[in-house]
């Protein structure tokens, strides 16, 4: 089963220096775009949280904070289409020459709350015009048939797949997709309708400008695409900080679980740097998931004996893969020391598995907010040359609880606002490790 890396390649926010920014229209959608650019480019947590509270309350601020670190901010290059509640625009990433197109749809109200925000990187050698994929009646029928087939064959729950397919067919019968001629718009409509039934945080339909390979790679293929490798390496495999705090408390912040073949050495370096601390804090407040094998690799540093931490059941092959800690890891383990994991409502997927594994093994104290509730690892399934459906084909089964955290999230042991979690954990660690009199 392939895990979906949290570097959302098709929805990547981006920006760079330009002499003069284009004027943003004086419309509800334009005001929202301006508010987002101002908050995003500030890099200030409080301003980004305030933006989300006002304009995107359903989206965790941690997601935007993670994109901000990846891109370094945005400059607006142009406005391509403007309507009162819809705007399309181009930006360029400050951290690289990469450009992207984006669009925002807002609903009526004051403020105009976001109902759809989509941003996509423009692949090398392509232009903004190349990103537009036109669809006709034959394409729409082929895409719907393909999605129905993929859901029926692979989706983690057969009954859930049937409900989604039935709902999609009901929308189709009513002619609700008939007027759609743009690929992105069709993908967004299908995603919305499928999620309305499944409430699955991983599920979505995507339209891609470059023709897809004719076949999906095998489910057990661990080959790393060179572009994916470059992105992981450029992001330092998600590791933002590894530092020794006052009182000999270690602190590691990382925002995704990369392929261990690529990112294992980075994780080893971070943990070995803190091998002699008296307590360790993992900051996963902006961690949106990744590779289950990397979760097991990092968790292995916290157990002295081989420990069964998770199982993944795959519906298509009726196969269960067990995940155990490795008794042998590069460098020194950190065992018998207090461990704390910081969470937010933006902690998702693999970030939640790491948290759940340590919580159920009673190996860590969880501090922060209830996590996002996305347990089922997902991967892309090709529908046709330009459409794919990203969906989970399996589910974790914890060896202790025999459950997972899908839809519910992982409850912290100490509930505090995400912004306060680090200070609370530092105080707990200091109290736990202070010398006994």
Can you describe this structure?
- The chain is of the alpha/beta class and 437 residues long.
- It has helices spanning 28-42, 45-55, 61-71, 137-154, 158-173, 183-198, 226-234, 260-273, 292-299, 350-360, 421-433; strands at 74-83, 86-93, 99-106, 114-121, 204-207, 239-245, 249-254, 279-283, 308-314, 319-324, 339-343, 365-368, 378-382, 387-392, 394-397, 414-415.
- It has three domains: 9-128, Nuclear Transport Factor 2, Chain: A (Roll), CATH 3.10.450.280; 132-207 and 378-396, Transcription Regulator spoIIAA (2-Layer Sandwich), CATH 3.30.750.44; 236-374 and 409-433, 2-enoyl-CoA Hydratase, Chain A, domain 1, CATH 3.90.226.
- The strands form four sheets. Strands 6-7-8-11-12-16 form a six-stranded mixed β-sheet, sandwiched between helices. A four-stranded antiparallel β-sheet has the order 1-2-3-4, with helices on one face.
- Helix 4 runs antiparallel to helix 5 (158-173) and helix 5 (158-173) crosses helix 6.
- The chain is globular, with a radius of gyration of 22 Å.
